[in-house]
TrEMBL record, chains A, B:
This is Tryptophan synthase beta chain. The modification N6-(pyridoxal phosphate)lysine is found at residue 116. Its EC number is 4.2.1.20. Residues 80-417 form the Tryptophan synthase beta chain-like PALP domain. The beta subunit is responsible for the synthesis of L-tryptophan from indole and L-serine. The keyword Cell membrane does not apply. PANTHER family: TRYPTOPHAN SYNTHASE (PTHR48077:SF6), TRYPTOPHAN SYNTHASE-RELATED (PTHR48077).
Amino acid sequence: MAKDLKTTKFVLDESDVPTHWYNLAADLPALPPPPIHPGTGQPVGPDDLAPLFPMELILQEVSRDRWIEIPEPVRDVYRLWRPTPLYRAHRLERVLGTPARIFYKYEGVSPAGSHKPNTAVAQAYYNKQAGVKRLTTETGAGQWGSALAMACAFFELELKVYMVRASYEQKPYRRILMETWGARCVPSPSPDTEAGRRVLAEHPDSPGSLGIAISEAVEDAATREDTKYSLGSVLNHVLLHQTVIGQEAQKQFELAGTYPDVIFGCVGGGSNFAGLAFPFVREKLEGRDIRIVAVEPTACPSLTRGAYTFDFGDTGRMTPLMKMHTLGHTFIPAAIHAGGLRYHGMAPLVSLLYEQGIIEALALPQNAVFEGAVLFARAEGIVPAPESAHAVRAAIDEARRCAETGEEKTILIGLSGHGHFDLGAYEAYLAGRLEDYEHPEEEIRKALAALPQVGT
Amino acid sequence: MAKDLKTTKFVLDESDVPTHWYNLAADLPALPPPPIHPGTGQPVGPDDLAPLFPMELILQEVSRDRWIEIPEPVRDVYRLWRPTPLYRAHRLERVLGTPARIFYKYEGVSPAGSHKPNTAVAQAYYNKQAGVKRLTTETGAGQWGSALAMACAFFELELKVYMVRASYEQKPYRRILMETWGARCVPSPSPDTEAGRRVLAEHPDSPGSLGIAISEAVEDAATREDTKYSLGSVLNHVLLHQTVIGQEAQKQFELAGTYPDVIFGCVGGGSNFAGLAFPFVREKLEGRDIRIVAVEPTACPSLTRGAYTFDFGDTGRMTPLMKMHTLGHTFIPAAIHAGGLRYHGMAPLVSLLYEQGIIEALALPQNAVFEGAVLFARAEGIVPAPESAHAVRAAIDEARRCAETGEEKTILIGLSGHGHFDLGAYEAYLAGRLEDYEHPEEEIRKALAALPQVGT
């Protein structure tokens, strides 16, 4: 299987599915402070989390072990689509006339179409092991909900998904996908929970929000003995499970005989970015010269315009307070099509890396992002998810700079998923109907002023 | 890269992308009779086809060479997703409790989500080579149109797709996919052609049909110097281009150390089935013991209930007459969700094999098909296209028979695509709203009575 830079896709054998997840916490000189209980102001301990998560995941959340073994039943499922291909974007390079070498690591080959199953499968497995019968979760656009629905089908767990009502009505295909895998999906706010009923009593026509949906899913799990809750991003253990992406990419670059000079990944909660970047961050901490860039939407610029402070993970103020880059839990991002990036905060581990200058960040407006996505689709075939398209556009800009300077940089894109369920967004772009959002300073200042004054 | 039967997916290196297409015509004791010109009653010659197709494709249509070399620029595109994986369906086998070994060859990894790009890319390439600037085609549900749109993006050809109006309105995502790749897509009947205007004058609200759309695309190509026409199934050269599927599968079975006892592929026009089956038909003709089964819908049973005779390829009676299994060009299949299988005829080469008893055929109703598809999705993750699900269901039935008899058969499924754009069909199934169609004898007799009396 001799490879060189002429290769189109660097394909690994399934024996190359990583055996361990990589835990960045083992290699950081300092860790993010622990989450704070909003009532007591004290650090949250394992017992506080036990009603929501099985103990194995709680232990992973605080582990400092560098390598955590992936259970064989999880690897068995990973083999359905992993290792995912690393592509050399020969055709895109030609279109751009760039001397840069562009690579993309493509997670859209999973049956759910994104990186999300990497953690969904692990979480379903540990819950099953712990005797849990049923999971709950929230979902916005539906990428996370559908990944968990698939994982629950594999491990024979019941799943109830609280889906933000606006998305539930706009994106029926994502809902049907969940139902095809056997999950129950209800629009949130729903009459099924106290939290939902409270909202409905006041706003019968509420379009819902991720904040409300989280409250419903958490309440459901906390009030039923057989049920736990599952989250698709932000937390340490979720980021941990995604590190199979970066580990595979490292092996694939060995095959290619090169190494990235710069990596671009999109960031919402941070899990896809972390999954690709953390194994490379480890090498950077050891002295390797590499730029790692998180790309966010101008409509939700938590890294580039947020504060680094303690905040709630949800709008409903039910979660512990985490130290992170945040626009404030009352901030409502503009309605861009990259639904997966519309989160007010950022994973504490990603925030810490940014604060320490180990990673960079930039923000892009959505028309530029879709322009890049269409250019990519016409060159490489794959139609990127609107979220992933942020990384694509940033990489295209870098490659164009290389065309000017003549630099032969090696660029890596984290292509976290396909856009098969997001074509409405492409239609709006092609018809010239997309707006670029940039929240005025005043609005962001106001949201930041509402931040809780805890543990600073 | 040691493999054995425990492997989940048999992945080939891109150096294993076939170098040649396999032409079954070289190995058949007798060929199907040539197509007949409906006006003259004489065999159609290359000159008759020249206004519609470039000469390379016309030559492939009548070639008896066993191997036809795949041009390097076509292989270069194939490498974006080929070789496609062959999966061992371990999880499905466990669910079924069968001693059978179930494999599936998955074409849904192409960016268009099906096997269709295998020929779309080749056709775009040969047209580009011949100096053609623009292609036209028709599409029903949109799988073919989107594959050709992608191929035209790669070779910088203009494309106009006449999409059956009913589908154009019901399946906007498929249309947007074509537009994202740069194609123009109009609902048919359209005011852009004489054929379209004629229908609109009489039926301004016509929902369209594949027959009308073919007439429009052919007229457009025949009346413009810079334009040719492209077809997604039925013809010999289209089937030829699909044989990369079966060749790869043979190599993958060598890795697995086994060989299929029985192959199931769905049939509409016949190209996906032929692509997988023909390389195995060759081995069967050499004496190998293997069953090859074409699976069609009960709503459009051209093999199991049609006549083997000369008929038009389209409802509009514009094409040459081909000897094939047909329900008659006036036959209107019931509105099942497997749109790609709603074709009154069958590829002449596939028809001949069936007539000679080399392949078998069976017909399935759509509720049974979707039941199989959901079972498959919950076991293997992938949500099959409704078309491909016909092969899936037939294989499940075979595996269940093996569970009764204890036979350790090796079963191969042609999984020609995913169902990401067909979730409306899954919703209808899950809600119990799908109907099973079986056309009454009288209706089929009537359609067969309208067959042209030519060249028999």
